[in-house]
Amino acid sequence: MAAAQKRATRSPAANSASWRDVAPAAVVLVSGPEEYLGIRAMDHVRAQVRASAPDVEVSRINAAAYEAGTLLMQVSPSLFGESKLIEVESVEAMNDAFLADCLAYLDHPEADVVLVLRHGGGVRGKKLLDAVKKGGWPVVDCQPLKKDSDKTAFVAAEFKAGGRRIEQDAVQALVNAVGANLSELAAACSQLIADAGTTVTAEIVDRYYGGRIEATAFKVADAAMAGNAPLALSTLRHALATGADPVPLVAALAAKLRTVARVAGASGSSAQIAAELGMQPWLVEQAQRDVRRWTPDGLVRSIQATAEADAQVKGLSRDPVYAVEHAVTVIAMSVRGR
Residue 10: which pLDDT band, with cuts at 50, 70 and 90? Predict the structure, then answer.
């Protein structure tokens, strides 16, 4: 395991590591509020340590309830000389005793010990975080994936790692259906990778997850953006009749319109626009096709109607259902040629 530690650089300028491929080192900091990515990063380190040292002794410490001297005791060489993996949780809530002991340990880390620190975010323990970064040990930044482009990149990477192909429109369909929660999105990827016998298509995604409200919301939005008012309204009414909340329905409309508006105001190739706006190139190309259906006035009118619906479904109207139906109708009728 010492060899695995040496592979991790100690250059302060190069200590940022991906949660997918972080390597074991004397100290590994897994920092950030996205719990799922933190779990994956720690699992990855643990798996590598066990692969190189099957008899590794694994210990866990809670930094918030830490008792002075515990870390020193845990890192001390064992009677039989086994390698050690020490995982410390709740570092963001550490007490003063842990801070003092850990700072002292960083000056003289033990051989054949991997110390993994899980910090959930915030300013508590900044002195320790700075010491880890200054030491050049791997730091994994686990931030929430808020942008659709980040989530689609996550899905594509999951399928690549799983050795399964997925079509681009299927990637977006999966994000639309289960992208609100990263752990659910990862679970959906795992299920499709395990179950699908061929390339995963949008039809396969719809078969598995088409009944979810997020998926239904984007079906309504797609139909409205295509100018198909009857389909958009019938899908909307079915969703509402089965208990769907109007808020995510309006959010899907707003997301589609916002993408078209951003692309409509940009110039350059799809790759250039994608880089400028932080979007996937294929999503830009799709939006460019959608832009051709719209006049500037029609787009403005649709955005205004959706903004009004958003306010109404969040409490300004006694009839949120009518608010959504009105927005869907305005969007569908504003498409060029309608």
Answer: very low
As given in the structure block, the two tokens for residue 172 are 């977006």
Give CA 148 to chain center in angstroms. Answer: 9
Inter-residue contact 168 to 282 (CB < 8 Å): yes
Residue 2 host element (H or E): helix 2-7
Task: Report d(CA 168, CA 200) in Å as an integer.
Answer: 9
Is the per-residue pLDDT at 99 higher than 90?
A: yes
CA 125 to each of CA 103, 117, 227, 276: distance values in angstroms, whole numbers, following the listed order: 10, 11, 54, 35
Share of the chain above pLDDT 90, in %: 54
The C-alpha atoms of residue 184 and residue 228 are separated, in whole angstroms, by: 31
Q: Is the dihedral of CA 65, 68, 71, 77 positive or negative?
A: negative
Give which of 110, 113, 121 is closest to 35, Cα–Cα. Answer: 121
CA 223 from chain centre, in angstroms, equals: 27
What are the tokens at 77? Answer: 């060489």
Mean pLDDT of the chain: 88
